[in-house]
Specification:
The chain is an alpha+beta fold. 54% of the residues lie in helices and 15% in strands. The chain has four helices and three strands, in the order βααββαα. Strand 2 and strand 3 form a beta hairpin. The longest helix is centred in the last third of the chain and has 14 residues.
Length: 67
């Protein structure tokens, strides 16, 4: 089962980018996150939402979205 939340370093691995880039995206609001008990967490849905926004910006359309 996949985790519901990722630490920024793990979110960076999932997105294929640096931890610094993830923190920059969080600060700009492009990547949603929460802070709980001193920990920054990125919800799994936020990673998917961010990836889809990149696809849309690039003009990529997936088959299931085109139908």
């Amino acid at each position: 089962m996949e985790p519901l939340f990722y630490r920024p370093k793990d979110a960076a691995v999932m997105l294929g980018m640096s931890r610094t880039a993830v923190f920059r995206l969080i600060k700009s609001g492009e990547l949603k996150s929460i802070k709980d008990d001193g920990y920054r967490l990125v919800p799994r849905w936020a990673l998917i939402e961010f990836a889809r926004s990149l696809e849309l910006k690039a003009g990529l359309v997936r088959e299931e979205d085109a139908a």
